[in-house]
Amino acid sequence: MNKILLIISYFIIFFNFNLSSKESNETLKVGVLAPLSGEYQELGNSLLYSLQLALEEINDEKVFIVPRDTGYKNKDKLNEAIRDFKSQDIKIVIGPISNEDFNEVKKYSEITFISPSNITPEFSSNIISIGISLESQMTALMNFLKKKKKSKTVIMLPENNYTELVEQKLKKFNLNNFKVFKYNPNPEVLTGEIEILTNYSQRKKNLELRKKMFQDKEDEQSIRELERLDQLYTLGGVNFDSVIIIDFGNNLKSVLTSLIYTDVSQTNVLFTTVNQWFDESIFFENTIKTLYYPSINYKEFKKYNQLYFNKFRSYPNEITILTYDALGLIYYAWKKNGSINSINNFSFKNKIKGKIGTFYFNNKKVIQDLNIYKTEDKKFTKF
């Protein structure tokens, strides 16, 4: 049975930093943990700006946010902020931004935290992570590959601090027809590793051997065949028909470049990756014709960015759209339940529609319905 889409109406007022206790029974007070000082101060400010936009759209005078500075990797500030929330009887908090703070905030079981982190989609004690999870991305990609009738997929992931975590998440999927290939992200090592993956040396030898068969012949057919072979770099295909590259930024571009260098046909092999937040720098990788990846609603993302720019004359950090949605989600839960007392107030049966697109809660897990987008001709196109 199709689930009903519940549209979250976003409504918010201006920031209120000083709230009196007499409002507690009739108002919604939302704590915000943000790095308003230190290395990530710019991100913290961007989070507050996004919440201001959400407050203005909610337009409910009973909704207040209470921002507090957590600094950068500062447990003292983090705990001080949460103790302040407790003193104001605040039961719901947006943050922390990083999963590195999860163990710290779990100590405050009477408060529910909604984090933009994407490390785990499962409800964790008193924490709900609404980031674009790898689980949601892999689900979208696997459905896409099935529609494209691809059955020999290589999942490529870098060897770094997150490799083990990614491997654990991949175990949740049926990957019988998939091969996992781990690579060293160092460009000086990477190309050699991908040469092995693509059997590049043998394919080059195949080409040279084939050329020798026609080099001493003067008949027209042999000459034409030799001319055709001269246009090739290798001979023979690879033993996979699609790749999923779990990487970002320059590392992703290095992997794509190495695949092209080793003469992997973009006609025969489908290039896919994980959510890149519509990073337009990929447009300038001239060797890449087409790249697919799952992401949030692009039209809403563009609208949000433009709204933010019109208001603050700068563009937001990508994850701030998640905090915008977080406030809408909290407001919906508050209106639906009359109050927010625990994480159980977020056990919805129906789908929710936010700026990022639709998402839902299943067995205390956040699952996003992501679209597949194609980068081609310097634009993003929904598949």
Give the arrangement of secondary structure elements:
Layout (H helix, E strand, L loop, with lengths): L4 E3 L20 E7 L6 H18 L4 E7 L5 H13 L4 E3 L7 H4 L6 E4 L11 E3 L4 H14 L5 E6 L4 H8 L7 E6 L3 H11 L2 H16 L4 H11 L11 E4 L3 H13 L8 E4 L17 E5 L2 H15 L7 H18 L13 E4 L2 E5 L4 E4 L1 E6 L2 E4 L1
Parallel strand pairs: 1-12, 2-3, 2-4, 4-5, 5-6, 7-8, 7-9, 9-10
Antiparallel strand pairs: 11-15, 12-13, 13-14, 15-16
Helix pairs in contact: 1-11, 6-9, 7-8
Give an overview of the whole structure.
The chain has 383 residues and is of the alpha/beta class. The protein folds into 2 domains: 198 residues, 3-Layer(aba) Sandwich (Rossmann fold); 121 residues, Rossmann fold (3-Layer(aba) Sandwich), CATH 3.40.50. It is 37% helix and 20% strand. It has 11 helices and 16 strands. The protein has a 5-stranded parallel beta sheet with strand order 3-2-4-5-6. The chain is elongated, with a radius of gyration of 25 Å. The two termini are 25 Å apart.
Concise summary:
With 383 residues, the chain is α/β, with parallel strands linked by helices. Helix content is 37%, strand content 20%.
